[in-house]
Specification:
By secondary structure, this protein is of the alpha/beta class. The chain has 2 domains: about 5-240, Rossmann fold; about 260-475, P-loop containing nucleotide triphosphate hydrolases (Rossmann fold), CATH 3.40.50.300. About 30% of the residues lie in helices and about 30% in strands. The chain contains 14 helices and 26 strands. The chain has helices at about 25-30, 50-65, 75-85, 90-95, 120-135, 155-170, 265-270, 290-305, 315-325, 330-335, 350-365, 385-400, 420, 425, and strands spanning about 5-10, 10-15, 15-20, 35, 40-45, 70, 100-105, 140, 175-180, 200-205, 210-220, 230-235, 240, 255-260, 275, 280-285, 310, 340-345, 370-375, 405-410, 430-440, 445-455, 465-470, 470-475, 485, 490-495.
Length: about 500
C-alpha cells in the first residue's frame, strides 16, 4: 500500500477518508468513508439507502469538487430526481453541469441464466465510460442484488463481487454499493460484507406505533469509528445523523451572569441571575407560572439583543404570545425582529430520537443564545423516564458545547412532591427553581424558591408572588433585608462573606 493512502492524526496512521458532507455521519466515521475504496450500505426497504447514497454523491459534487457517477438498476433517472427533489437536490442541474452522471441500467432477472461463464465485463465498460466522461471521483451502485438475481452459485457470485470491488479500488473510486438486508444477515446473499472495506447498516423500526431510523458502522477496515446505533432523520434538508453517544463533558463554564428577567429573582441569585451556558429547571403544578417565568427570561434575553429559541409541546406560538401579552410580556415584537423563534410540535409526532434530531437541527439553524423547552414532561408520553433522561442528557450536552443557556419547564401533579418526582433529571440542572400554589383561606397563594443554584450564593427564602398586568411580581421579602440568604437558621445579606452565605452545590 502506498504511503499516500495514509494520513497521520495524533500520531496514528489511518486510511485517507472522503467526507460525506452528511451532518453527523462524518463524526461517527471519524472523517468520512474510506477514500478510493468501496463501502457497502445495507438496509431494508424504506431505510434510506438510496437517499444516503445520493446525498454522498451530491455533497461530493457541490462541496468537495468530486464529480460522481450513479448506476441505478431499479429507478429511472426522472423517477430518482423526483424522489430527492424534496431534499433540495436538483439532479438534472448537476448532470447538466457535468458534476453528476446518472445511468439507468435495466436488468431483467428472468433473463439471467447460469449458462457458461457469468461476468460483469459489460458493467465495467459502462462504468469506465461514465467515469472518464465527467472525471468522476465517487461512484454509487444501487442496488447490487439486481445484478445477481438469477444466480445460485455463490462461488461465481463471490468471485464477481471481488472483481467489482477490486476494479473500483484500482481506479481510486470512493464507492457506495447499496444492498437489501437479509433475514439473519446483513445482505441477502450474506457475502458482500466479507469483500468490502466498510459496512454500514441502516434500520427502520417501529415501536409503539412510532418509527425510528438508525445507522450503525458494522465494519471499517483501517480506521477507528463509532460502534453504537445512532438515530438519523430524513427531513426537508436531507439526512442528519445524531452522534448521541460521542458527546463528552468538555464544555466551558463561563463566569458571566445573565438576568432571569425579574430583578427580585436576580436578587435571590446573588443579585446577578443565572450563569450563561447553564441549565435551569422550573418545576411546579399547573397554573403556578412556569411559562410566564420562562417568558420573562426570554423577554430579557431578546431585550439584550440575544437570539432565543422556544420549544413548545402543548400550545401554539400564537396562543402562547396572546397569553403572555395579557401579562404585559409582548413576545411578538421579538418574533418580528427575528430575535425569537418558536418551534411547536405535538410530543407524539415523533419518537424521542427524532425529537432530539429536530431540536438539534433547529438549534443549528437558529444558532440561539437562549433555549427554552416547555414542558419536558410532555415528552414522557413517548418514552420512559429513563429514555427521557437519556434524551435530555444528550440535549443538555449539545447546548452546553454551543454555549447556550437553557431553561426547562416541568409540570408536576398536586399529589407529587416536586423534589422527588424530578430526581431523575434534577442532577442534570445547574439551577432549580420551584413554584407552588397553596390555598390560604379563600385565596390562592403562589410561592417561589430556589432549591439549588450551583456555584453561586442564593437565597433559601420562600417568596410569595402574584400575577399583574406587567407579569410576575415577587412580593417584598419577609426577612428584614432584601435579597437575604438564609443559612442554617441565620440570615445574611447576599454577597457577604462565605461565613454568612452558602455556595450552591
Amino acid at each position: 500500500m502506498l504511503a499516500t493512502d495514509f494520513m497521520i492524526t495524533n500520531h496514528r496512521s489511518e486510511i485517507a477518508k472522503a467526507p460525506t458532507g452528511i451532518p453527523g455521519l462524518d463524526e461517527i466515521t471519524h472523517g468520512g468513508l474510506p477514500a478510493g475504496r468501496p463501502t457497502l450500505l445495507a438496509g431494508g426497504p424504506g431505510s434510506g439507502k438510496t437517499l444516503l447514497g445520493v446525498s454522498f454523491l451530491v455533497e461530493g459534487a457541490q462541496r468537495f469538487n468530486e464529480p460522481g457517477v450513479l448506476l441505478t438498476f431499479e429507478e429511472k433517472v426522472d423517477e430518482l430526481a423526483t424522489d430527492v427533489r424534496s431534499l433540495g437536490y436538483d439532479l438534472h442541474k448537476l448532470c447538466e453541469e457535468k458534476k453528476l452522471l446518472i445511468d439507468y441500467v435495466h436488468v431483467d432477472r428472468a433473463e439471467i441464466e447460469e449458462t457458461g461463464e457469468y461476468d460483469l465485463e459489460g458493467l465495467f465498460v459502462r462504468l469506465e465510460h461514465a467515469i472518464k466522461e465527467i472525471g468522476a471521483k465517487r461512484v454509487m451502485l444501487d442496488t447490487i442484488e439486481t445484478l445477481f438475481g438469477g444466480l445460485k452459485d455463490t462461488g461465481i457470485l463471490r468471485a464477481e463481487l471481488r472483481r467489482l470491488f477490486r476494479w473500483l479500488r484500482d481506479r481510486g473510486m470512493t464507492a457506495i454499493i447499496t444492498a437489501e438486508r437479509g433475514e439473519n444477515q446483513f445482505t441477502r446473499q450474506g457475502l458482500e460484507e466479507y469483500v468490502t472495506d466498510a459496512v454500514i447498516s441502516l434500520d427502520h423500526r417501529v415501536e409503539d406505533q412510532i418509527s425510528t431510523r438508525r445507522i450503525r458502522i458494522v465494519k471499517y477496515r483501517g480506521s477507528t469509528h463509532g460502534t453504537n446505533e445512532y438515530p438519523f432523520l430524513i427531513g426537508r434538508d436531507g439526512i442528519n445523523v445524531l452522534p448521541v453517544t460521542s458527546l463528552l463533558l468538555e464544555h466551558d463554564a463561563p463566569a458571566e451572569r445573565i438576568s432571569t428577567g425579574l430583578p427580585a429573582l436576580d436578587g435571590m441569585l446573588g443579585g446577578k441571575g443565572f450563569y450563561r451556558a447553564s441549565t435551569v429547571l422550573l418545576t411546579g403544578t399547573a397554573g403556578t407560572g412556569k411559562t410566564t417565568l420562562s417568558a420573562h427570561f426570554v423577554d430579557a434575553a431578546c431585550a439584550r439583543g440575544e437570539k432565543c429559541l422556544y420549544f413548545l409541546f402543548e400550545e401554539s406560538p400564537q396562543q402562547m404570545m396572546r397569553n403572555m401579552a395579557s401579562a404585559g410580556i409582548h413576545l411578538k415584537r421579538w418574533v418580528d425582529k427575528g430575535l425569537l423563534t418558536f418551534h411547536a410540535e405535538r410530543p407524539n409526532k415523533h419518537g424521542l430520537e427524532n425529537h432530539l434530531l429536530e431540536m438539534h437541527h433547529a438549534v443549528e439553524t437558529v444558532d440561539p443564545d437562549v433555549v427554552v423547552v416547555d414542558p419536558i414532561t410532555n415528552l414522557m408520553t413517548v418514552g420512559s423516564n429513563a429514555d427521557v433522561r437519556s434524551m435530555l442528557t444528550r440535549l443538555i450536552d449539545f447546548l452546553k458545547t454551543r454555549g447556550v443557556t437553557a431553561m426547562f419547564a416541568s409540570l408536576t401533579s398536586s399529589t407529587q412532591v416536586a423534589e422527588t418526582t424530578e430526581a431523575l433529571i434534577s442532577s442534570l440542572m445547574d439551577s432549580w427553581v420551584l413554584v407552588a400554589a397553596d390555598t390560604e383561606g379563600n385565596r390562592r397563594s403562589r410561592k417561589l424558591y430556589v432549591l439549588k443554584s450551583r456555584g453561586m450564593q442564593h437565597s433559601d427564602e420562600v417568596r410569595h408572588f402574584m400575577f399583574t398586568s406587567h407579569g410576575i411580581e415577587l412580593l417584598p421579602s419577609e426577612d428584614k433585608t432584601e435579597g437575604a440568604v438564609t443559612v442554617a437558621g441565620r440570615t445574611g445579606k447576599a454577597g457577604r462573606s462565605p461565613a454568612r452565605a452558602r455556595k450552591g452545590k
